[in-house]
């Protein structure tokens, strides 16, 4: 039995923080666990923190893209956060630019993106550009 | 380059049979990359290439061996890595190194991508005779 990557729930967001060097089976398990948790919790967003990952090869890269697609079909948006610069440079050279995957520099920005995406969807006032109640445009 | 340059450090040899061995291969190459003082980006590129090749050895080669060492060639220092398997081999090497070519299980970036991540790349294979891939990453 291999180790599993924990999936944490914070409000309507699921947080996956990958802290160990991933064996291929763990990657496949994570895909399944996360899909189940999205359905069970009705989560609207998924944040995958890869700041501890020293490398992302084509297998893990493809998993990130697959998870993002599956989550979208289940009504949740995925943001991958914390990619190291060296990993980003390597991925591009490898030929994997993860075009379909939303990314953010860190956890804070990732959660911020999911919150604003949700508020926009729910039509919460004050989130449209130049909203009248603030009197100033936020940049 | 298919054999280790004379004057290199002793070669480590490890079996690459199960998927857990891919993780082990990454760790060994990471250590060698640090010993040879590759830059962080070059370490990351080499370890990623080794990960692709190790997975190929397990998935397509039916398991095999990784040999690796800190390579020394005159004033040059780097890491030399070789993966060998006795699997079905690759019938068309040219095609196998094309982006997007895949035997069906992956995205077809493993071999071609790994080649872009290293400084030297040598692929030898024939149908029914297994595959040997040798790569070197030199310190800039």
Explained architecture:
The complex is a heterodimer of chains A (139) and B (140). With 139 residues, chain A is α/β, with parallel strands linked by helices. Chain A has a single domain, classed as STAS domain (Transcription Regulator spoIIAA, 2-Layer Sandwich), CATH 3.30.750. Helix content of chain A is 43%, strand content 16%. Chain A is globular, with a radius of gyration of 16 Å. The mean pLDDT of chain B is 91. With 140 residues, chain B is α+β, with helices and mostly antiparallel strands. Chain B is globular. Chain B has a 5-stranded antiparallel β-sheet, with helices on one face. Chain B has 4 helices and 5 strands. Chain B has a single domain, classed as Heat Shock Protein 90 (2-Layer Sandwich). Chains A and B meet through helix 2 and helix 3 of A and helix 1, helix 2 and helix 4 of B. Chain A: This is STAS domain-containing protein. Chain A: It comes from Streptomyces pyxinae. Chain A: Residues 3-114 form the STAS domain.
Q: How would you briefly describe this protein structure?
A:
The complex is a heterodimer of chains A (about 140) and B (about 140). Helix content of chain A is about 45%, strand content about 15%.
The CATH class of chain B, by name, is: Alpha Beta
Using DSSP, what is the number of strands of chain A? 5
| CATH A-level architecture of chain A | 2-Layer Sandwich
Span of the ends, CA to CA of chain A:
50 Å
Enumerate the spans of chain B where pLDDT stays under 50 for 5 or more consecutive residues: none
Number of helical segments with 4 or more residues of chain A:
4
Question: Given the structure, what is the number of helices of chain B?
Answer: 4
- Bin the strand percentage of chain B: 25-35%
Q: Please identify the oligomeric state.
A: heterodimer
Characterize the largest beta sheet of chain B: strand count, sense, and whether it forms a barrel: 5 strands, antiparallel
* Most extensive interface, chain pair and sizes: A-B, 22 and 27 residues
Question: Which class best fits the helix and strand makeup of chain B?
Answer: alpha+beta
**Lateral strand order in the biggest sheet of chain B:** 1-2-3-5-4
What does the overall shape of chain B look like? globular
Indicate the mean pLDDT of chain A: 88
Q: Looking across the biggest beta sheet of chain A, what order are the strands in? A: 1-2-3-4-5
């Amino acid at each position: 039995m291999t180790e599993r990557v924990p999936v944490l729930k914070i409000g309507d967001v699921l947080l996956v923080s990958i802290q160990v060097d991933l064996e291929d089976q763990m990657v496949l398990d994570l895909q399944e666990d996360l899909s189940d948790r999205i359905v069970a919790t009705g989560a609207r967003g998924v944040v995958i923190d890869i700041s501890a990952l020293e490398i992302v090869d084509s297998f893990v890269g493809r998993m990130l893209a697959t998870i993002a697609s599956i989550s979208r079909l289940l009504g949740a948006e995925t943001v991958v956060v914390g990619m190291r610069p060296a990993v980003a440079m390597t991925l591009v050279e490898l030929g994997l630019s993860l075009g379909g995957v939303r990314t953010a520099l860190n956890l804070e920005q990732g959660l911020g993106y999911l919150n604003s995406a949700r508020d926009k969807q729910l039509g919460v006032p004050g989130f449209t550009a130049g909203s009248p109640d603030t009197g100033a445009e936020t940049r | 380059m298919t054999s280790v340059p004379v004057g290199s450090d002793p070669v480590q040899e490890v079996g690459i049979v199960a998927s857990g061995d891919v993780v082990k291969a990454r760790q060994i190459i990471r250590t060698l990359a640090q010993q040879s003082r590759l830059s962080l980006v070059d370490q990351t590129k080499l370890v990623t290439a080794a990960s692709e090749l190790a997975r190929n050895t397990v998935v397509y080669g039916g398991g095999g061996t990784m040999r690796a060492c800190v390579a020394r060639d005159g004033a040059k220092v780097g890491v030399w890595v070789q993966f060998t398997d006795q699997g079905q081999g690759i019938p068309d090497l040219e095609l196998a190194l094309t982006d997007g070519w895949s035997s069906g299980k992956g995205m077809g970036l493993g071999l071609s991508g790994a080649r872009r991540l290293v400084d030297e790349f040598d692929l030898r294979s024939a149908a029914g005779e297994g595959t040997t891939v040798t790569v070197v990453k030199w310190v800039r």
